[in-house]
């Protein structure tokens, strides 16, 4: 292996330490950031993710509430829970874990969250702020990828970044954040012919496809930074990403592993977003006449 590892676990620890310090500073002003996490249904993977998010809040001194509902919950009931949390002064961030059961309209649910509490950054308001280059809450996974890129010390200005994946939650916001950092950005997806022709010229590759081993050594430029957003399972049931780690690590300059890469960073940035929402709410209260 020649690539250096982008250790998401260690970097997330640093970010969470910084969050904990700012949480302590906010506590002196009588405010404790609060995150509400809503889980509908009994998807086992979602239950694990939600548990990890709630535990991370506790570890960093944030207040958190977890609400679990049966898969049969009606949309009206879910929207009314969100309305109650929107009005709750102890809650600064609301996260509805995705995917939702099929009878619930994810778009309507996300749009019901008050923009100031949209710590996932999935709403049209948050997406619009990002698109326009205005301040706002950014989706945690691409934000975590940006922190990992920052940790390499490599300037992104003028670098060619290839994002593989065009989801609203990762691919699109990732491309916008890279643009904002002055990278030259190509967005590829399942319909892109000759993906390798794009990735081979990339200084940075962010793989967010959800297909195991799709980025191989032959597709990577020597010395490139490779960030793996995928969460898949191999034949043995072991967690793995979208990148053929062993092969690509022989070519790349930097590579993020799965597990221990983007996953812990996503949680750290969710806490950071919740803190940011609480700080803004505290400032607004302070300024009120
Ligand atoms: N499901 C998988 N990742 C996420 C996430 O970042 N936020 C939400 N709300 N649901 C998810």
Q: How many distinct beta strands?
A: 11
Overall tally of structural domains = 2
What is the correct CATH architecture of the largest domain? 3-Layer(aba) Sandwich
Category from helices, strands and their pairing: alpha/beta
Characterization of this structure:
It is a single chain. This protein is of the alpha/beta class. It has two domains: 29-114, Rossmann fold (3-Layer(aba) Sandwich), CATH 3.40.50; 140-263, NAD(P)-binding Rossmann-like Domain (Rossmann fold, 3-Layer(aba) Sandwich), CATH 3.40.50. It is 42% helix and 15% strand. It is built from ten helices and eleven strands. The protein has helices spanning 8-27, 44-59, 75-86, 106-112, 124-131, 140-151, 171-180, 195-199, 245-248, 262-287, and strands at 4-5, 34-40, 63-69, 93-96, 160-164, 184-188, 204-207, 225-228, 232-233, 239-240, 254-255. The strands form three sheets. A six-stranded parallel beta sheet has the order 1-11-8-7-5-6. A three-stranded parallel beta sheet has the order 3-2-4, sandwiched between helices. A two-stranded antiparallel sheet has the order 9-10. Strand 2, helix 2 (44-59) and strand 3 (63-69) form a beta-alpha-beta unit. Helix 1 packs parallel to helix 10 (262-287) and helix 6 (140-151) crosses helix 10 (262-287). It is globular, with a radius of gyration of 19 Å. The N and C termini lie far apart (60 Å). The structure holds guanine. Guanine (GUN) binds next to strand 4 and helix 6.
